[in-house]
Amino acid sequence: MAGWARLHPLSPLVRFGRAVAVLLVAGVPRLLWSGDRTGGWIEAAVLGLGVVGGVVFWLVTRWRVHDGELQIETGLIRRQSIRVPLRRVQAVDVVAPLMGRLLGMAEVRVEVAGRGSGHSRLAYLRQDEAWAVRARLLALAHGLPEETPAPAEQSLLVMSNGRLVASATLGVPTLLLVVVVVAVAIGVWSSPALLVALPSTLPVIVGIGAVPVRRIVAEFGLTLAEAPDGLRLRSGLLQTRAETIPLGRVQAVRWIEPLTWRPFGWCRLEVDVARQRSGRRGDEGDSARVTRALLPAGSREEARRLLARVLPGASECPSPGSAPPRRAMLLTPLSWWALRAWHDERFVMTRSGRLWWTTVLVPLDKAQSVRWRQGPLHRRLRLATIEVDTAGRNWRAVARCRDAAEAGDLLATLPALAHHRRTDEALP
């Protein structure tokens, strides 16, 4: 495809559909209740300006795939010409918000190493066209003819929505919500005069309750499959998202076991991929909410099976001698018993947490830097913390409160192992 193309003509409706819905929901009832037509005219003018802006954006935006690049040109007053080298593409995702699903449209998001996804997206195309563009971009990114169809996939996991709802309900936000509601109820019962303060607590209750709801909506119906181009995730209740995670781009894996899940033997498995935050908060905001859970809630056997697919040879089980020295209890009395750090020739693994056991597994060939951190109390107790950074944006392996001599050995050993792993993998 060398010729320029435009987005779908109804793209402005999808792009500004949320703002239109907010204006209608907030403005129409107020107009009917108060009868104030002045506010209605103001809201209608704002709505009209939004529609005009969307139409102008559609008119001045065009895209094409040419000379090994995805090229996007947009802007009326300040023209922007974006070039995305396909050889640096990490993944191509297809996202369909609720309004887009109703109109049969979807957005194509191109994830590129070293940049956010905000400037590399086509919003919106017809759904069939979006999937065809995705297949074409992935084929070109892998050096194949652009007519090459998307490779077949093998199903790995179909998440039970019942287990998803149960796990979200048993999370820390729900427990915190119960505590807040009980505290408010006790306060009102002991002093009815506190009823006047009840409306001020409603935003807090709604905010806490929205956390598990957002997770359920984002991860509803999650399916995981494996294909030659990586792991393919599909999920979403209102907004559906289909994303591909290339196995070679996985920077770290996180294994989580909350206290409330342990009686059921559940755990959560997440991955982190290389991506840099965009400087524009509006562009990155939606991308930051993307689920990276390979297993939202499942058994340890399921998690180990998926871990073997992502990081073959890695284990979440601490090795002997992975605990910090007993004097570290003076700095971390509540979490000392859970702290662990161990490594082999391929991975470095750390565990921490009080109520949530969190194990981070980092391939050594993905390590970007190894840092030594030691505060005044650490020096007094002959302790130090080692941090292993990756190109991911979410987590790093942190070996907390290790013996200073052991930390010194890690500071010397881990970079050497990382260099060895990278040079070995670079050999033909």
The helix/strand class is alpha+beta
- Determine the fraction of residues in helical runs and give it as a percent range: 25-40%
Radius of gyration over C-alpha positions, nearest whole angstrom: 25 Å
Poorly predicted spans = 276-291
| Domain module count | 3
* Total of helices: 12
How much of the sequence lies in strands comes to 25-35%
CA(first)-CA(last) distance: 33 Å
The coarse silhouette is globular
Strand order of the biggest β-sheet? 6-5-4-10-9-8-7
Largest sheet: 7 strands, antiparallel
Number of strands: 19
Mean pLDDT: 85
Secondary structure blueprint with pairings:
Blueprint: H1 11-15, H2 17-34, H3 37-59, E1 62-66, E2 69-74, E3 80-85, E4 89-96, H4 98-103, E5 105-112, E6 121-126, H5 127-141, E7 154-158, H6 161-169, H7 172-190, H8 198-219, E8 223-227, E9 230-235, E10 240-245, E11 250-258, E12 266-273, H9 281-288, E13 293-299, H10 300-310, E14 340-343, E15 347-352, E16 356-363, E17 369-373, H11 376-380, E18 383-389, E19 397-403, H12 404-426
Antiparallel strand pairs: 1-2, 2-3, 4-5, 4-10, 5-6, 7-8, 8-9, 9-10, 11-12, 11-16, 12-13, 14-15, 15-16, 17-18, 18-19
Helix pairs in contact: 2-3, 6-8, 7-8
Describe the structure.
By secondary structure, the chain is of the alpha+beta class. It has 3 domains: 11-150, PH-domain like; 153-310, no CATH class; 313-428, Roll (PH-domain like). Helices cover 38% and strands 29% of the residues. The strands form 4 sheets. It has a 7-stranded antiparallel sheet. A hairpin with a 7-residue loop joins β11 (250-258) and β12. It is globular and about 65 Å long. The relative contact order is 0.08.
